[in-house]
Design brief:
6 strands, four-stranded antiparallel sheet, 2 helices, alpha+beta
Length: 107
């Protein structure tokens, strides 16, 4: 018998300097399965990350599928982490973005 489960996909994109903090958050919220992509390049609110002399810095990306409630708790934790960091940095933006894709099914 085929069982489908409704899930949300959490996508985190962050400067690689935050990797230890992000891994700690994933552990804290019980995320045991995810895919990590290194050397992700891009341009956003906190600047460019093209791993070059002109635009130093690299991003990483995490993809994690999980039940809705679990995803909601993780996103809440990511927001709280971001808000604490921004406050500690006197309002400077944190190179971290979280996206949630819903309406997905795990088969």
């Amino acid at each position: 018998m085929d069982k489908s489960v409704a899930v949300k996909m959490v996508l985190l994109i962050f400067r690689d300097s935050l990797e230890e903090d992000i891994m700690s958050l994933l552990k804290q919220f019980g995320v045991k399965a995810f895919t990590e992509v290194h050397n992700v390049e891009g341009l956003g609110e906190t600047g460019a990350a093209f791993h070059s002399f002109t635009w130093p810095g690299k991003n990483s990306m995490i993809l994690a599928a999980m039940p809705e409630g679990h995803a909601d708790r993780l996103i809440k934790g990511v927001r709280e982490f971001r808000d604490r960091q921004v406050q500690q940095q006197h309002g400077l933006r944190l190179p971290l973005r979280a996206f949630v894709l819903s309406g997905l099914e795990s088969v």
